Please model this.
Amino acid sequence: MRWQKDKMCETEGILRHPIDAEGWKPFDEQYPCFALDARNVRLALSFDGFNPFENISTLYSMWPVILIPYNLPPWKCMKAPFTFLSLLIPGPRSPDKEIDIYLQPLIDELNEL
Model:
C-alpha cells in the first residue's frame, strides 16, 4: 500500500494512475502532512444504481457504494479483489440528495481508522 511513495515514477504529462492527475496536487498542497505520510490511504468512492430484477417495469433499485484504494499500483487498484463493497443501498429509486444519510456511518468509520 505504499506504491504511490516508493515505486511511482513521475513523467510530466503522462497519466498512468489517478494520483498522477492535476486534481491531487491542490489536495497535497493543502494537506502536506497527509501527502508526506505514505501510510495514509487515498480512497475513491463510487456508486451507481441498477435494477436487480432486470425488469424495467419494476420500481426497485440497488446502489452499491464501492471504495477503491489508490495506494496500490495501477495494475491492481481497479481489479475486483482490491475494491471494497462498503454499502448496498436498496430502494425504489436513487438516493439522490439523501445519500449523505447513508454515507455518514461509512465516513465516521473511515475517520476512526
